[in-house]
Design a protein that fits this description.
The chain is an alpha/beta fold. The chain has a domain of 240 residues: Aspartate Aminotransferase, domain 2, CATH 3.40.640. Helices cover 42% and strands 18% of the residues. It contains 13 helices and 17 strands. The strands form five sheets. It has a four-stranded mixed β-sheet with strand order 1-2-3-15. Helix 3 packs antiparallel against helix 11 and helix 4 packs parallel to helix 11.
């Protein structure tokens, strides 16, 4: 065990199941561990490092800003917030932005703003939410309340009351769940932690129809699938949604912590000073980094579409080769291999061979590569996955044969 791992085991709260690897350096799509081993990163810090690692342009603006001014507090104006908010408004169509430090904080803000909207209108009983099974919006108390997984929720109850979970694609369930007490529907256009599950066009259309008919606010959780990952600024735009609120995080700073709640003007006008706040949110360092990242994403959009199509094609071919793959789901550079077995052996075999992916929803291998990924990277990654799947399948078959042999001998 390395000294780093040993020291952490003694003093860091063990809230994560970590792989015994210590990364010390990155370059582009590559990571390097403390022993000098090179890895191809197809997770990008769980969808964060969209420009890859050690991007020279991002490093330059961070260094420059750090030498000028990092933080002044939100008691004062600074021009970078305004410029970034204008950029996000142009991308989303939502005219106002609240800056925070993470995607979870952005969800918390959106949940509060949805309630405040109805309170300001004098409708005090529209306090409930509708969310989706397999949905994940974060682990703080409000975000956890609209996160479906009972394993995450149960130890911390009671949470915010009045949350109804419905099955993805259950249009009748959606229609029944939305009442005159519903403040908002929250949904990820592509569920991430829940297993890379895109909403169907029919269900997405039903969400738009129901929210429009009832006035219920729509929160499109774009923390993982937004900001260019699927080739569009926001994936909900592929459905024709007109959300009232969009929480964003992860990709916006490409590793510099920043999140944002994007707010439609009709909601924003019901919010007053003091309704929400943050000490660090929207500081000069994070907003300067985010401005650089979003400018780079503009130029990367055609590349993301091309690389996303290539990755989907290669994974489709992999599915034809391995019966254990039941489906390939996702869009652009957000893809998941759905397996008929536990995905952990595949993830571990991939890591051993030099590819970083992860398991989500037990049976899904999730891929969120940096948006700068190239054809050679995709070819290499799929090749490693091919070997990892073969190895894991053989291991599972071997385990099954051993069990059968044991039973036969009894």
């Amino acid at each position: 065990m390395s000294n780093v791992v040993s020291l952490e085991a003694q003093h860091v709260l063990p809230t994560y199941k970590r792989h015994p690897v210590v990364f010390v350096r990155g370059e582009g799509t590559r990571l390097f561990d403390e022993n000098g081993k090179r890895y191809l990163d197809f997770l990008s810090g769980i969808g964060v490092c969209v420009l890859g690692h050690a991007h020279p342009g991002l490093a330059a603006v961070i260094a420059e800003q750090s030498k000028t001014l990092i933080h002044t507090s939100n008691l004062f104006y600074h021009p970078l917030q305004g410029r970034l908010a204008a950029k996000l408004a142009a991308m989303s169509g939502l005219q106002r932005t609240f800056f925070c430090n993470s995607g979870t904080e952005a969800v918390e803000a959106c949940l509060k703003f949805a309630r405040r909207y109805w309170y300001s209108k004098g409708i005090r009983n529209r306090t409930q939410y509708v969310a989706l099974e397999h949905g994940f919006s974060g682990r703080t108390m409000g975000a956890l309340s609209v996160t479906a997984n009972a394993q995450y929720r149960d130890p911390f109850g009671p949470l915010i009351p009045g949350v109804t979970f419905i099955a993805q694609d259950d249009i009748q369930g959606l229609e029944a769940a939305v009442t005159d007490r519903t403040a908002a529907i929250i949904a990820e256009p592509i569920q991430g932690e829940g297993g890379v599950r895109p909403l169907s066009p029919a269900f997405a259309a039903a969400v738009e129809r129901v929210t429009t008919a009832t006035g219920t606010l729509l929160i499109a959780d774009e923390i993982q699938c937004g900001l260019g990952r699927t080739g569009r600024p926001f994936h909900c735009q592929s459905f024709g949604w007109t959300p009232d609120l969009i929480p964003v995080g992860k990709a916006i700073g490409s590793g510099i912590p920043i999140g944002a709640a994007l707010v439609a003007e009709h909601v924003a006008k019901e919010i007053v000073a003091g309704d929400h706040g943050t000490t660090y949110g929207g500081n000069l360092l994070s907003t300067r980094a985010a401005l650089f990242v979003l400018d780079e994403l503009d130029t990367l959009a055609p590349h993301v579409k091309a690389m996303g199509a290539l990755l989907e094609q290669k994974l489709g071919a992999l599915q034809q080769k391995h019966q254990v793959i039941t489906a390939v789901k996702g869009a652009g550079l957000m893809q998941g291999l759905h397996l008929s077995v536990d995905a952990l052996p595949v993830v571990e075999a991939s890591l051993k061979a030099g590819l970083v992916v992860n398991r989500t929803a037990e049976t899904v291998v999730r891929m969120l590569p940096p948006l700068i990924v190239g054809p050679a990277d995709i070819e290499e990654a799929v090749g490693i996955l091919d070997g990892a799947l073969a190895s894991a399948t053989a291991g599972a078959a071997g385990t099954k044969r051993t069990a059968e042999q044991v039973n036969a001998s009894r």
